[in-house]
Write a structure and sequence with these properties.
75 residues; mainly alpha; 2 helices; 0% strand
Length: 75
């Protein structure tokens, strides 16, 4: 594999990982902070916990896929 192909592989993996990080921020951290700081007003729904776990699974899948893409790099 040439250096150009290696760089293209990296360019594919970087956005995948960035989407995973952004998803954590918007789907997990923000709702958790909302419940912690305004819990009485918003209430805690079991559906939020289920959705949080689903989003976390999606984030892990994106991150693993980025690792798989990077696994295609050759010396």
């Amino acid at each position: 594999m040439s250096l150009i192909e290696n760089e293209r592989t990296k360019l594919l993996a970087i956005p995948l990982n960035n989407v995973a990080v952004a998803t954590i921020a918007t789907a997990l951290i923000a709702p958790t902070a909302s419940v912690l700081y305004a819990g009485e007003q918003t209430g805690f729904w079991p559906a939020r916990a289920i959705l949080g776990v689903a989003w976390l699974a999606g984030v892990v899948c994106l991150h693993v896929f980025a690792h798989i893409v990077l696994g295609r790099l050759k010396p």
